[in-house]
Amino acid sequence: MIMYDLIKASFDQNSNARKILLETGNSIITHIQDKGKWGKDFPIILMDLRNIYSVKDNNQSLFHLSNNQNLEAVNNRFNEELDDLKSGRLKSNEMLHLGKPLEILRASGLKNGEITITQRVLRDHLKSHNLTMEDLKGLAKAIQTPMLVYN
Asked: What's the rounded Cα separation, in Å, for the pair 92 and 134?
């Protein structure tokens, strides 16, 4: 995306602006002045760049969540729940857990709470999309690093 590249180039060339962006911490960035496309896209670009610069500047793991959950641990838990579901060890009332959404997902409207899926919904979607449980391994990590978010 051209606008993403331009904004990134601007921050790459201006360390003071990058420092100010990083100082926003885990806050959700908004751009309420613009009611159109950039009112939604601009904050997402800024938060994405902030995450990239934060990782680069702090030499932290990209998959360390702001709520102190490690994405690898969340992903492993989901994969284990899938295995338990497949083998019949998961109780019928238990849900599968996908972790809490990162900022980019919250900025697109997802509430800041645990993302869960019921066994019934999961099985229905597996069947309707001709997928296996093995196809869903790694889903908890994949949804936290979207290539595109749209309504």
From this structure: 20
Secondary structure class of 57 (helix, strand, coil)? helix
The count of other CB atoms within 10 Å of the CB of residue 95 is 15
Q: How far apart are CA 45 and CA 67, in angstroms?
A: 21
pTM here is 0.56
Number of Cβ atoms within 10 Å of the Cβ of 13: 9
Distances, alpha carbon 33 to alpha carbons 28, 37, 39, 142, in Å: 15, 11, 7, 32
* 35-74: pLDDT as tens digits: 788 888 888 888 888 877 776 555 443 333 444 457 788 8
